[in-house]
Structure formats: structure tokens, C-alpha cells
Design brief:
The protein has 7 helices and 12 strands. It has helices spanning 17-32, 72-89, 111-116, 185-192, 222-228, 230-242, 252-258, and strands at 2-7, 39-45, 58-62, 97-100, 106-107, 123-125, 129-133, 138-142, 154-157, 198-199, 205-209, 247-249. The protein has a 7-stranded mixed beta sheet with strand order 3-2-1-4-9-6-10. Strands 5-11-7-8-12 form a 5-stranded mixed beta sheet. Helix 5 (222-228) packs across helix 6 (230-242). The mean pLDDT is 90. InterPro entries: Nucleotide-diphossugar_trans (IPR029044). This is Glycosyltransferase family 2 protein.
Amino acid sequence: MIVFIIPVKSQKVATSWPDLCKLFDRSLRAVCNQTSPDFKVIVVCNEKPTTSFEHPSVEYLCVNFPPPGEGYGVKVDDRAKRVVAGLFAVKDLQPSHVMSVDADDCISKHIAEFVNQNPNKNGWYVDRGYEYDEGSSKIAVRKEGFYRICGTCNIINYRLFQLPPQMLPYDQLTGYDRFLGGHPLAKGDLAERGTPLEPLPFPGVVFVRDQAGESVSMQESFLEKWKRNPKETLRGVKKRLLAPFNEQILTDNIREEFSLYPLSK
């Protein structure tokens, strides 16, 4: 069985809590729209997002983590700690795999079925996916390297996580896998351990670009990104300039597979 962990930032640091709740609602519906019923969802949050959607496979883990300060590093660390809390919470479920899903992204409805058919695999990284600017009638196709740009990109066998022996207080919670705070690292780190991930054999995720969402990098200014990683910033600029050449019409089939319905105003 696969478990999806959805870390949700504190309302105190949300750009727009109502907008984030709308994005979360859609993301949660996408996660639960799986063709296989054998999955669980753990939402790790300070405050439960406003949603009318209910599903028997969804549980909310409410934590009292302090809101993170300013800066890319502390915000990424906060997200990672929420995922760690989720990993501890699902231990007794004995899941085969875990996938961390950002609370604004949409995933393919075929993921649970595929993973459950391969319970002994080390896992997969999402090499192919889509990028979507909220409200657009088009969608950009990412044919390779999707895992480098989107945090919703790794499906990992639960036995491969290296966690502290027990859940610790927020300020003492260290020692978790570094790829929980740096998603592109999972592919290389797990390969070095002798437990390599495979590319997911189909486009698995829609990376939703919206300033109110969960993407820390989306909320950084250009100058902040440049100071942190100039090469990454230049790659991002190049990618955005070339994006129109990789766009296609957002079809009903894509909307249905990823539950990518328009958000209400």
C-alpha cells in the first residue's frame, strides 16, 4: 500500500490562506481519485485547511510546529519536518511506499495502482510531468528532468528512509534524509546507497505554478534565487523562455487524469 503525505504550511505564513485552501482541496481530490482504492493519505498541518471534501482514506495529523522564519532554508526545513512527522505517523500502517505531495500539485490517478503492483521496488522518481500556470488553457510538457523542478516527484519504499529513532521536538528534529529538503537529491543519494530509484514510466504530476501555493521557490524573489543558486536561476529563466514552445492545449483527458479542474473565484 502507498501512503501519500501532504505537508501544509501554517496559516500564519500562508500568502493567502483562502487561496491555499482551494489549491489544497483540488490537490486532495486528485490524490484520492486513484484507480486503486488501496492507499492512505496523511495531511500534516497546524490548522486543518478549509475543504468540503471527505474521504475514508484521509487522516489529518495536526501539529503545533512554530511558523518558520524568513528565508528559503528554514521554509524548506519546515516542510521536511512535516514530512518526517507523517513518516512516523504511518509507521504502524507498514506502507510499501510513500509519496510526498505538495498541497497545490495534482497527481495522476494511476500512481497507486502502479505502485501497488510493484510493492518490492525501491521506488521511482517522476522524470516526465506537466507545468501549469493557474487559470491557463494550456499546459507545458516536461519530457525529462521533472524531478529537478517540483517537490512532488519521489515515490520511495518506506524501508529506505533514514529517520531518527523517535519523533523529536521541532527544534531538535534533525538527522532525516537530506532529500526530504532537497527533492532532486533522492535520485542520486539512493543510487549511492545501492538502492536506486527508477523513472516513473508515465507522466505522474502536474506542477501548479501559483504564488499562494506550497512552492517555496515560487515565492522567492529573483534576487533571492540568484543569491542562493545562480545556475539554478539561469536554468529557470531559460526554461520559462522556452516554455511556450513546449505548451499544448489542456485537454479534457489531462484534466480528468489529474483532477485539474478550474478553481472557483
